[in-house]
Amino acid sequence: MYTSSDKMDSPVQIPFNSFVTIDKADANPVYLQITFSFIKAIQLGLLPEGTKLPGTRILCKLIKINRNTLIKAFHELEAQGFIEIFPSRGVFVLSSQKHDKSAGVLNLSRKIVSSQANELSFVRSALLENPTEISDLPLQFNDGMPDQSLMLYDTLARLYVSKLKHHNPKNNNSQLIHVNFKKQLSNFLNLSRNLRISAENLFSTNSHEICLYLIFKILISPGDKVVVAAPSYYLSNMTISDSGAEIISVPVDDDGLKIESLRQICAGQQIKILYLTSVYHYPTTVSLNAKRRIQLLELAEEFSLIIVEDDYEFDFHFDNNPVLPLAALNTNSNVIYVGSLARSLPAGFGYGFVSAPESFIIELEKHHKILSAGVDNIKEQVLTSWIENGEIHRVLKKSKKIYRQRRDWFAGLLTEQLGAHIMFITPSRGLAFWIEWADHPNLAKLKKKCAENGLFLPKISLYQNRNLTATRLGFGNFDYAEMKAAINILANSVDSLDN
After folding, report:
1. Does domain 139-151+396-498 correspond to CATH entry 3.90.1150.10?
2. pTM for the whole thing?
3. Cα torsion at 30, 31, 35, 36 (round to 10°)?
4. Sheet holding 90-93: strands in order across?
5. Taking CA 234 as the corner, what is the angle to CA 228 and CA 239, rounded to the nearest 5 degrees?
6. What are 79-100's pLDDT values in tens digits?
7. CA distance 221 to 224
8. What is the pLDDT of residues 126-160, one digit of tens each?
9. H/E/C letters for each residue in 308-376?
10. Among the listed residues 107, 11, 103, the one whose alpha carbon sits nearest the alpha carbon of residue 62
11. Under CATH, what is the fold of the domain 16-125?
12. Measuring CA to CA, which of 207, 305, 377, 476 is 20 to 30 A from 49?
């Protein structure tokens, strides 16, 4: 229970309207819709442990609902262990460790919906909401996507057409083509990331997200406990929570995940999985330093911890000493390595892959066949040719030179126009900056002000609570003129909030 000494004041700038959604056409009662919204916000880290929520009268005005409805939702949240209500002090968010992951809670997040007798009855997840937004504004920030105009579409198109013309299904063994692709991909990963794997240790599919989905589906049973870094990747958090696991957060500092905090958690309870982006932490862009990497592998062995290492952006490092993944150092087969070629190739050619013990790869492939009975052998032959003739290395070398230049431009513009407002470290890898706002502007209002001036700030890039006001800004998709215009709008919008 919270006492007056350990409570956190309410972060008055929490954008409740951004995550409390009410759909009048929804068959679920309004109070349950509010309950679902708060559960999702707590599990995704939008409402950290100890946050004091505004009073019901204030909150009712913010989200435009009846006070009795909100009180009913709060009682439901308290019953499920997500909040604690003190009549004299207020309402406080409980930590993820205190949540009751009983069958009742899981049923709450996966509600059976049947609105009318002649309509479908189905299970609706309160966790798997789509956080992406669509905008037609002329300038748009993202959370670190590449510039599609730099992709060599013509080269890939010619290769694809050539393979398609010479493809004869009767004379081509689909399985042999797939095995050959995995051999070439494993060779590429061994060379570039020092993984020391064979084709039998490799699973590949069309996307990084499918890889994560299948991994968690196989590993997680309802009630399992999964540790993630805080803040962390919103899509993986949703997948983990929807699998029935309890998420426990461990803080990150300038050297990466705090190993001592993780040790304390593992010593006190049974943790099954640690999910982390160690090479390039999402969203803060920091790397786990060498000492902590060794400590983490030792801790995982001591506590029989499975590490799911998500190396989503290895290809874009801008120094001469790229940080190798944990999987390259691991000798105990307890690291499942997830990566992607999607950042290096045009849309439609990207691939997600998993490196793991052969027995786990076999299980992944069994589940994957339910989703997709076959593979695109033409695309795999194209990618095999790219790897065999070294084209993929030339493309990466060329694109890294361009993105390094853009990174440096972006850092200069940030310092020039926003230096008085922000703190940041120029990243040594990746296509995004993590900036922390010194004067803690209301990011929901900043997003709105930027939109009025033609600049889109996605809500997935905005991080705000009582102790943190930060934004993840992708730079890879902008040329110099676009960067200058976008940062100018951002700077003017921040200044206008102060007036």
Report:
1. yes
2. 0.78
3. -20
4. 52-53, 90-93, 83-86
5. 80
6. 777 888 887 788 888 855 444 4
7. 6
8. 667 667 788 999 999 999 998 888 776 677 777 77
9. EEEECCCCCECCCCCCCCHHHHCCCCCEEEEEECCCCCCCCCCCEEEECCHHHHHHHHHHHHHHCCCCC
10. 11
11. Arc Repressor Mutant, subunit A (1.10.10)
12. 305
Q: Where are the alpha helices (DSSP H) in 86-233?
A: 103-109, 153-165, 174-193, 208-219
CA distances to 51, 180, 256, 289 from 324, rounded to whole Å, are 37, 25, 15, 11
Angle between helices 67-79 and 30-43 (to 10 degrees): 50
Chain Cα centroid distance, residue 323: 20
β 90-93/52-53 pair status: antiparallel
Tokens encoding 170: 């009767």
Q: Quick one: which of 208, 184, 240 has its CA closest to 338?
A: 208
Q: Identify residue 217 by its one-letter amino acid code.
A: K
Residue-wise DSSP of 32-82: HHHHHHHHHHHHTTSS-TTBEEPPHHHHHHHHT--HHHHHHHHHHHHHTTS
Q: Which two tokens stand for residue 258?
A: 């705090």
Query: Which residues contact residue 64 at a Cβ distance below 8 angstroms, ignoring those fewer than 6 apart?
Result: none
Output b/e per residue, 225-241; b: 16+ Cβ within 10 A: bbbbbbbbbbbbbbbbb
Strands 273-276 and 335-340: unpaired
Q: Please report, as a single letter, which amino acid is at residue 362.
A: I
- The residue ranges of the chain whose pLDDT is under 70 are 1-15, 18, 25-27, 95-119, 124, 126-127, 129-130, 152-153, 166-172, 331, 342, 347-348, 373, 498-499
From first CA to last CA, the distance across the chain in angstroms is 41
Residue 477 dihedral angles phi and psi, to the nearest 5° = -85, -5
| Dist. CA 94–CA 79, nearest whole Å | 12
CB atoms within 10 A of CB 21: 14
Q: Where are the domains of the chain?
A: 16-125, 139-151+396-498, 173-389
Q: Is 228 helix (H, G, I), strand (E, B) or coil?
A: strand
Q: Which CATH number fits domain 173-389: 3.40.50.150, 3.40.640.10, 3.60.20.10, 3.40.630.30?
A: 3.40.640.10
> Which residue is listed with tokens 């958090």?
237
